[in-house]
Amino acid sequence: MYKRLSLSAIAATMLLMAACKNNEDVTPRRKFISFKLDDKVVLSEQSHSALYAPGDPADPNPQNHHAEMLITGYSYNKDVINIHITSPTTEITPGVYRNASTGNGFAMQMNLSREVITANDLFGDLTVTVHSMKDSVITGSFNGTLVSMDDGSLKTVKDGYFRMIYRKYP
Length: 170
Fold this sequence. Notes:
Elements: H1 2-19, E1 32-37, E2 40-44, E3 48-53, E4 67-74, E5 80-87, E6 95-98, E7 105-109, E8 116-119, E9 125-134, E10 137-148, E11 154-165, E12 167-168
Parallel strand pairs: 3-12
Antiparallel strand pairs: 1-2, 1-11, 3-4, 4-5, 5-7, 6-9, 7-8, 8-10, 9-10, 10-11
């Protein structure tokens, strides 16, 4: 009986060791947008998408020479969230993108009240940091001050993070 238990223990140990192989990329595959809006947590985990359009320097229209990324999602309250990143070059690379540059911004439409809060080149103050962009996955963080288009009140966004799988367009 002890021999049978010993063989079972050895087999279980070997099975456990085989299952625990070393994996360099242990980051979770979870896709999300999350942030605090005036200290209230907003989370989009299920309904979201990201589209990436690299710039085309061969295009005769100079408006098409820069890269753009649109990250969009719905919170659990069905609020619409949009983060827009524009690079002056043909590629979006890790770095800091501010709403003072045309094309960078954040907009959120509240589901029940239809209030729109935004930060763009005219209103608010937003900083988006792209941490990485590889294997069709973009990760980053953001924070700043948004302006209500209804009454002009200010809303604070902090601890914002996103991790999305993006599709190239076109």
